[in-house]
Amino acid sequence: MLRFEIKKIFSKTKNRITVIALLVILIAISILTINRVEYVDENGNHSTGILAARNLREAKNEWSGYLTEDTFRKALEKNREINNSKEALSDDEVGTIYERRISTLKEWLDSGEESFTDEEKNFLIQHYENLKTPFYYEYADGWAVLMQNISTFILILALVIGFFVSGIFSDEFQLKADSIFFSTRFGRNKGISSKLGAGFCITTGFYVVFVFLYTFIVLFVLGVDGANCPIQLDLWRSVYNITFLKAYLFIVLGGYIGTVFASTLAMLVSAFTHSTPSAITVPFIVLCAFPFLSRIITLPQLCSFFPDQLLEIYIDIKEAGLVTIGSKVLTTATVIVPVYAVICVILQPILYQAYKKAEIK
Length: 361
Description:
Layout: H1 2-10, H2 13-34, E1 38-40, E2 46-48, H3 49-61, E3 65-66, H4 69-82, H5 86-89, H6 97-111, H7 118-130, E4 136-137, H8 141-165, H9 171-174, H10 178-183, H11 190-222, H12 244-273, H13 276-296, H14 300-303, H15 313-318, E5 322-325, E6 328-331, H16 332-356
Antiparallel strand pairs: 1-2, 3-4, 5-6
Helix pairs in contact: 1-11, 2-8, 2-11, 6-7, 8-11, 8-12, 8-13, 11-12, 12-13, 12-16
């Protein structure tokens, strides 16, 4: 029955066309992501995309290794050959660059520009101090642009998946076949379980396949170099002491939870209303309308917990929002990901019972 439910989804012409459209979008966004890599040579010639990535890899990997004091001194010596600026002629900050990252944070916290509690200030300082130094440096632009653009693709993917699953629980009513479905031997148990399974398989399968394709295309062209470099090479202020690879996987995980949540709500509306059009609108409301609400509502702490934030983990990694629970300080992303994961699990039996109690008209 599970296979039948999945086959039924892709027997519709509109869904097949949507798959083709999604492939086109995948290629388009992959090209846009690749072209975000830029390179300017010593003559001022500008290049983007594949050529830029190759030139950047060669230029940056000449300096690959740990960013120690000696490395910074060599960089300044090289800079003196190119530019006689005051900054280039001064090496006062070379030996304390990592320490100055911490001292600059403390100065900013004491400036009063942001209103943090003492616990939150200690949290930020501790994470800055716990960052492992010296950094290991090499070309990592492929991962950097991949992280910057993945949220847009995940949003489109989540909306398309919501479109696919929106009719799973309402098709029988739309086709006037509900009386047949619920009168069968396994209609109100195994049949409903098959629909739940189909929704999960479609959501997970499409998400994994298309995120993998997007990742593969971009990294195949730009290179996988730098996966184990600290994200502070690109996001200097981040409090997440993780590598590019771990940051990317966290972003993908958050996107997956957000996609499952939006899809489950779409199926829930489909089961309650027996209307496919109503169900289709749910992912748009959850993932697209909520960001506009966050601009109207002047409660940033509340907006940080909206489900659309699951698709914006990159922003939290870049400039972490903080949440205090009891005496414990956490980043927003580390809270909303497990919370919404639990909500998704709780919604499954609710969806099952909602459809099981549906009345035949």
